[in-house]
Amino acid sequence: MSKNKVSSNKENKNKNSLGEDDVKIEPETDIEANNLDQNEDEDVSIEEIVENQKKEIQELKDQLLRNLADSENLRKRTLKEIADAKRYSHVSFVRDLLSSVDNLQRALKAVPDDKSQLSEPVKNLIIGLEIVEKEIINTFEKHNLKEISPLNEKFDYNLHQAMFEVPTTDKDPGYVVEVSQKGYILHDRLVRPAMVGISKKPDEKS
Question: What's the CATH fold of domain 147-206?
Answer without folding.
Answer: Nucleotide Exchange Factor Grpe; Chain A, domain 2 (2.30.22)
